[in-house]
Amino acid sequence: MDLNVISDLNQKGSRIYSKLNEMGIIHEEEMPPPSPEDGRITFGSGYPSKAIEKFIGYYDRNSRIAYTPSMSILTDFSIARAYCLYNKAGKSDIVYLDSRFDPEKSESAKIALDKFRSICGVKGYFTFYVERERRYVRAKGLSESSAVAAAVSSALVSNIFGYNVKAHSMLASRFAKFVSGSGTRSVFPGLSTWISYPGIQEPKCMAHEIKIDFSKIKIAMFPKYADYSTNQMHELSVKSPQYIPWVQNKFARFEEIIDRSFDLEDLLIRAEEEMLNLNSLLMSAGRVLQTEESLSLIERIISFRKKNPGLYFTADTGPSILVMTLDENLLKEFLETERDFYISGNIVKDSSPSASNAFRERGKAFFASFTESP
Fold it and tell me: Would you call 202 exposed, middle or buried from its count of C-beta atoms within 10 A (0-12, 13-18, 19+)?
């Protein structure tokens, strides 16, 4: 990307950061000294975020700095729970996902944990026992990775810095981005924003909660499946001839949303607008995100709201469609006409679900029999 464009994005990002800081949304805490304890096991959990202002494409992939800020709501369509074991004399980082050793996730975890160790000055290795609890069978675009990232990052921060450290949420958000970019927002309930732009310092590149009354927003999810990876979308997006105009539009609209004090109707309009822009962007790079089934659903939504305005839809990098409105009766009326499987959902007010008794028992049994050679 041209240096003049990068400089312009830096100035726009800095202006957004300043506006949010003036509104009291930005909260910065210094990282306390680490206090690792060999054999300590800690818990973390997370819900998936659904993007209002989308994120795709890294300015600095190594530091997980995106080209643009993003914004999302936290939803209850799945839950991720994690235990983290610190092993000072361990040989490797290990991830067990849904009761199975996952070599791919273990390798990804090593990359993220190497960054964590480098920043915090901690030596030793970590073992994660992670479970996902879904309200659907399988789907693409329901942000499971963001829930997992929030869960493992929260467990990791608690392990090395303690459960009650003042900067816990800030640290969990900062380190979650090394697992999944959108995970940095899943640390916070309700509406949150991930502040990212070219030139921001990595320690400041994290999410912050936007404390507004979002209780009027009603949502339902239509899970749809497609077989492609989000990482592919990040790589493809920046190659699109539309990428720079798309990024510039995002900065402009983000400022408008801030200046309108996060008006709820504006957020829903923007979520739909962003989905359409994102799909157009990736189509220009040769990737179609939607399926015949999801396109048919979108057509029905559009047809319904011709006579019933106020219903909106959005999707991330997948064909799963989120339906949103400020009118609960309108959502009920639409869902009564639908033949596709859907999940009624809520925006989460508490970002940290507890460990269920069943999860505690499975985690206890896992670590009681755990060896480093899966």
Answer: middle
Is 216 inside a domain boundary? yes
Which is it for strands 191-194 and 207-210: parallel, antiparallel or unpaired? Answer: antiparallel
Cα dihedral value 9, 11, 17, 18, nearest 10: -160
Collect all residues with Cβ–Cβ distance below 8 Å to 58 and sequence separation of at least 6. Answer: 64, 65, 66, 67, 181, 234
Which residue segment(s) compose the domain that 263 sits in? 3-369
The CATH number covering residue 337 comes to: 3.30.230.10
Q: Domain tally for the chain?
A: 1
Average pLDDT of the chain to the nearest whole number: 93
State pTM to two decimals.
0.94
pLDDT tens column, 150-167 = 999 999 999 999 887 778
Nearest to 219 by CA among 264, 277, 250: 264
Distance CA 200, CA 336 (A): 47
In a domain? residue 374: no
CA–CA separation, 362 vs 27, rounded Å?
Answer: 37
In a domain, 105, yes or no: yes
